[in-house]
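Regression test case RT-17, inverse folding.

Input:
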């Protein structure tokens, strides 16, 4: 039977989120907008890709889409989150520095050392848990006042959450604007390619189908 399947619609949703990360709709709230888009991609793809649960072993699922979604998780295994294509920031970016506070020592300040040897699979699970399960304040905006203009500059978000459930150790993530756009777009692209199985006809159908969004 033909027609538009759930997988077509799911592909279209994640692909639309990626499109808005790649070419953001015009707004003065670009960092806030990217955080919303990145979080949506993360929550959707992580939840879908973890069809095997915490153990991560492929099951004997009847739905072929479950196997395709699990492929996303397997593709992240053995890939460090600090390496391409994810490239989590490790040196504080210049855009996050305020005027007059960008000397050599400051420019070389390291961040995100907690994730230096973490795989993309473990990172996205940790981050999803931090965003969805955190109690109290686990997320804070990273902002500073420019002494030159007096404006408050929003550079990204700091996320502090336990290393794993019930652990005393907490990890600190500095998530900058460029990270959200790069990693969110890469994650969405990985998910869409897995869901389509590389079938260009599927992608064309999902991309051009009349999938309308009601108000």
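Golden output:
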């Amino acid at each position: 039977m033909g027609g538009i399947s759930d997988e077509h619609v799911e592909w279209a949703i994640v692909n639309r989120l990626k499109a808005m990360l790649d070419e953001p709709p015009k707004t003065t709230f670009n960092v806030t907008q990217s955080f919303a888009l990145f979080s949506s991609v993360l929550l959707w793809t992580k939840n879908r890709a973890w069809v095997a649960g915490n153990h991560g072993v492929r099951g004997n699922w009847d739905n072929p889409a479950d196997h395709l979604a699990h492929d996303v998780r397997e593709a992240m295994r053995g890939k460090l989150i600090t390496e391409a294509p994810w490239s989590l920031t490790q040196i504080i970016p210049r855009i996050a520095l305020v005027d007059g506070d960008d000397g050599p020592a400051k420019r070389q300040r390291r961040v995100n050392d907690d994730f230096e040897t973490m795989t993309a699979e473990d990172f996205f699970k940790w981050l999803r848990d931090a965003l969805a399960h955190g109690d109290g304040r686990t997320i804070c905006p990273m902002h500073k006042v420019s002494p030159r203009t007096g404006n408050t500059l929003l550079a990204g978000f700091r996320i502090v959450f336990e290393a794993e459930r019930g652990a005393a150790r907490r990890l600190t993530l500095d998530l900058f604007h460029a990270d959200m756009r790069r990693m969110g777009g890469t994650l969405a692209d990985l998910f869409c390619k897995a869901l389509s199985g590389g079938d260009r006809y599927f992608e064309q159908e999902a991309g051009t189908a009349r999938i309308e969004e009601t108000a």
